[in-house]
Automatic annotation (TrEMBL):
InterPro entries: MPN, RadC_JAB, RuvA_2-like, UPF0758, UPF0758_CS, UPF0758_N. This is DNA repair protein RadC. Residues 102-225 form the MPN domain. It comes from Bathymodiolus thermophilus thioautotrophic gill symbiont. SUPFAM superfamilies: JAB1/MPN domain, RuvA domain 2-like. GO terms for molecular function: metal ion binding; metallopeptidase activity. Keywords: Hydrolase, Metal-binding, Metalloprotease, Protease, Zinc.
């Protein structure tokens, strides 16, 4: 039986229009994007097969073109469509959160960071530069690779802060593994940078670590900024 023969409350598009997107499973949302299935499989069944193949919706959406096109029923055209949809989502979010916005809530900061570094396959260290009223001046990406004492240089952090005349900063990095739990190295580097910036009277308000699926950890909330 094809999707056209299903009850309208069970068809992904009609279900979303009637009950909202939150009523749909990951497979149903993906089926709307796929639009059609393949011989012998509806779009929903194909979507679930793809989720099983990639392990999660996050892994599928963050696959590179070569990995993506290995999926059943996928190809360069669908990959281009996907990148376009994700680019629109990013611009939609950024249109309501740009330079000059006040950054005070960890949830707000994490959402912003997920768009910029959350999907990177390599660990990326970044910094939100803020003015006296915690308005965003700039997001700068400083280092890429595993965080350790050798890779994160406080002098580069200080240089970026002085160049932008920032009054406060929020440190950030992603965990490509998906688990945002901070390591002892993450905590040590936070304190090292905090001490360096204290010498020029610049506050380190937090260190946000983003994982996948919207997960994040705030060192300030965990009490690790003391």
């Amino acid at each position: 039986m094809t999707i056209k023969n299903w009850h309208e409350n069970d068809r992904p598009r009609e279900k979303m229009i009637k009950f909202g997107e939150d009523s749909l499973s990951d497979a149903e949302l993906l089926a709307i994007f796929l639009r059609t299935g393949i011989k012998g499989k509806s779009a929903v069944v194909l979507a679930q097969d793809l989720l099983d193949q990639f392990g999660s919706l996050h892994n599928l959406l963050n696959a590179n073109e070569e990995e993506f096109c290995k999926g059943k029923g996928l190809g360069p055209a669908k990959y281009a469509n996907l990148r376009g949809v994700m680019a629109m989502a990013k611009r939609y979010f950024e249109s309501g959160m740009n330079k000059g916005d006040t950054f005070t809530r960890p949830e707000q900061i994490a959402s912003y960071l997920h768009l910029h570094i959350g999907n990177s396959h390599r660990e990326t260290f970044a910094m939100l530069l803020l003015d006296q009223k915690n308005h965003l001046i700039e997001l700068v990406e400083l280092f890429t690779g595993t965080l350790n004492k050798a890779s994160v240089h406080p002098r580069e952090v200080v240089k970026a802060v002085l160049h932008n005349n920032a009054a406060a900063v929020i440190l950030a990095h992603n965990h490509p593994s998906g688990d945002p739990t901070p390591s002892q190295s993450d905590i040590n580097i936070t304190h090292k940078i905090k001490d360096a910036l204290a010498l020029i009277d610049v506050r380190v308000l937090d260190h946000i670590i983003v994982g996948n699926g919207g997960r994040f950890e705030s060192l300030a909330q965990r009490g690790n900024m003391l």
